[in-house]
Each structure stands twice: as C-alpha cells, then as structure tokens.
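Example 3.2
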Amino acid sequence: MTTSFPKQFTWGVALMAGLAMLAFALPRVFAQGTVETIIACKLNTTGALRAVDSAGNCNGLLETVVEWQVAPESGTTFPLMCGGCNFQGIQIMQGRDLSESWLFSTNLSWGNFTDTNFSGANLGSSSVSYANFENANFTNANLSGMIDLATATTTGVIWDNTICPDDTNSNDNSNTCAGHF
C-alpha cells in the first residue's frame, strides 16, 4: 500500500529542507574568510530554495539557478540578487551586509533581519509580514510597494533617503517611513 501526502505538505517539507540546507551552508561559507559563491536551485512554482554544489544539480525544467557571492570581510559587499525568492522564516540573515541587493518581490515574512544593512537595496513589492528589522539600515533603499511592513518590527531602523512603501521619501517624512507603509 502506498501512502500519499497532500501537495501542500510535500512543498512545505521541501521548503523546510531548503532552508535547513541554507542554514548549514551560509554560516560555513561566512566562517571560511574567503569570498565564495553560494549556488541554489529555486523551484519555479513556489520560490523554495535548496542549496547545491553546482548549477548542474538544478532541474532546468522545474528550477532556476540562483547564485550569489558572500564576502565576510568588513567593507566588501557582493549584493544578493534573488528577486522573487522565498526566504519566509529565514533566521540566519541578522547582521549581514545586504547592501545593493536586489530582492524585488521576495518573501521575507517572519524572517530575522536584526542589524542587517539594506543600504541601496531594492526590496520593492516584497512581502515582509511579521519580519524583524530591528536596527536595520534602509539608507537609499527602495521599499516601494512593500507588503505588510506595518506588521514588522522596525524599532531603531535607519530611514535615510528611503523610498517608503507608499512611494514617499523618508527625508520628506521627518526621516522615517513610519506612517507611510
């Protein structure tokens, strides 16, 4: 007798497995002290990621290869280019330098981005329900159309020349996007 699981359960397990693999891969890469490339396969239907050793491990019919460089040295940045990715619930990005990253239409809901630098990043149209951005830096960032920022933790956020979710500039709003979500 064969047991089958609902599709939502199967995709949920796949997403959790992908995040677990990233949780293993990212700290290891940051700890090595050299610039390395992280390669992942993004499932086209859900945006779920899974870390792989090479782009050849992705199924070209179902997945898109996503690559980004990680630079552990202070002052050296390599932006994360992952528009449309699903990082829901990610807990390993706090304190990271994601300046100049392109995260347009990305799901960052329930993630922990405490002390993360998003200077110059494009997070437009991204979903951030209940994410933690405490002490994050959004200087020169684009948050236009960001979804559910009002539910996120934004204590201590730096809003300097930030395009707010309602398309106003934080500099015109007493250096804040609060009230302009």
